[in-house]
Amino acid sequence: MAPSFIPRSPSIFSRNSVFSKNSRDSKSSFDASSYDTNAEFRAYLSKTVAELSSQPCSLPPSFIINFVRRCFCLDLSHVDFAQALSALDYLRDLQARWKKEIDAAFNRLNITAQDASDPQHSEVARKFPNVMVWYKDISNKARMIDFLYTQVYVGLRRWILVNQMMLEPFDKANCLALLNTLLPPLHRDSSTPTQQLSTAILGNHRDTFFKFITNFESDPSILEPIMKQGARPGDENGWPALYDVVDRYLNAALEMIDECILINEPGQISKSGVQRRTDSGISFGPDFGPCPTIFQPSDTEKPLPHFPEPNTGTSKHGSLLERFASLSTWGKKKDPRKEQQRQQREQQREFERSLRKMQSCREFNSRSSSTKSTKSTKTSAKFNATISFDLTDDKRRRLIDEAQARKAVDAAEADQSIGQAI
Question: Is residue 113 domain-shared with residue 259, that is, in the same domain?
Fold first, then answer.
């Protein structure tokens, strides 16, 4: 039986894709000049976007902390291992965030590596001695947070792999795929998440779990030592101890971020640390101390950081994107007759809208006056003559207004028809 030929539709991931190299070389695609122009424009666009003022490109620390705590709760039976990989990514972002904030604080304080290595000959240490004291304190906190993240990095990956291996039915391929995701192969020059974790240590963890995965079907009890690793006296396994480490890391990282955000200048650092004080910016006289009846802001309230100053070094002709936007309208001739007709149509719509609004207001007022008059007839019968006179007068006035409104609408429609005929 001859093999049948089944045509397949092109895929964006196949070599026959419309975006592949073969299709770009075909005559039906863009020519070389237009492709070069588009590539140049994309390069300028990427450069312009990269030169924009820095914007927060990471999730808020409070969101990350809440997500991680909901995912890795104290009760092991309620841990959401389905969201574990997302939580690990968020923890990595939090680790990068506090490092970014501490570097930004050092830059605002003008602390360089030379000042840190030789504080005796540092100009910053001579002018602001409290700054170098704070620098040593914050460096110790950073090392402690880094040490906690090392335990979190290894411990969470260990428990995620254990959970995957204990799922029924056991799937060896999925376990190996998860191992490659959590502990990928490393070479000697690969970067590590912390200084405490070397490539040799990570490679040892990977080899150990590879042996566990290959031998788990024959001996499921090999996971018991891993589950009890780091367990405290009285705990069934080591998860409660790891949970405490994760909680300590989250609190320390959030405190580090808040403290670094508060620092804008060296004068804010005193002997007791960073001044956590909020100021409204309004002074009503000398400071006589806080009033006991006024609410005092807590330490958790922090001022907004300085907004980056706009870049004034732009050309008088505008940026490249602005010039491109102006050039995109070149060659398009505007017909003055069509422009005039378009303006007339807009004015006519606005006029009709205002007329309808005025007419609805008059009708509403007439209805309200008629309801009031009917209520008065029911309450007292001796004013029947006066009320009937008022109703007749209102009706006559309403008819006059409606006639004037109809004349105005007819005149507007006539002008519109004349304009369309022209």
Answer: yes
Host domain of residue 190: 61-274
pTM for this structure? 0.54
Query: What total of structural domains would you count in the chain?
Result: 2
CA distances in angstroms from 347 to 350, 351, 412, listed in the order given: 5, 6, 10
Long-range contacts of 100-108 (CB under 8 A, 24+ apart): 101/256, 101/257, 101/260, 101/261, 102/138, 102/142, 102/256, 102/260, 104/260, 105/138, 105/260, 105/263, 106/135, 108/263, 108/264, 108/265
Using an 8 Å Cβ cutoff, are 38 and 46 in contact?
A: no
Instruction: Please report whether residue 12 resides in a domain.
Output: no
> Would you give per-residue pLDDT tens digits along the chain (422 residues)?
444 444 444 433 333 333 334 444 444 444 455 556 777 777 777 777 666 655 556 788 999 999 999 999 999 999 999 999 999 999 999 999 999 999 998 888 888 777 776 766 677 767 777 778 888 888 899 999 999 999 999 999 999 999 999 998 899 999 999 999 999 998 888 888 888 999 999 999 999 999 999 999 888 889 898 999 988 999 899 999 999 999 999 999 999 999 888 887 777 676 555 555 444 344 333 343 443 333 344 444 444 444 445 455 555 556 666 666 666 555 555 667 777 777 888 888 888 877 777 777 677 666 666 655 555 555 544 444 444 445 567 777 888 888 888 888 877 777 766 666 55
DSSP conformational letter for 297: P
Looking up tokens 């093999």, which residue turns up? 3
User: Based on the domain organization, do 262 and 360 belong to the same domain?
Assistant: no
In whole angstroms, what is the distance from residue 200 CA to residue 315 CA? 53
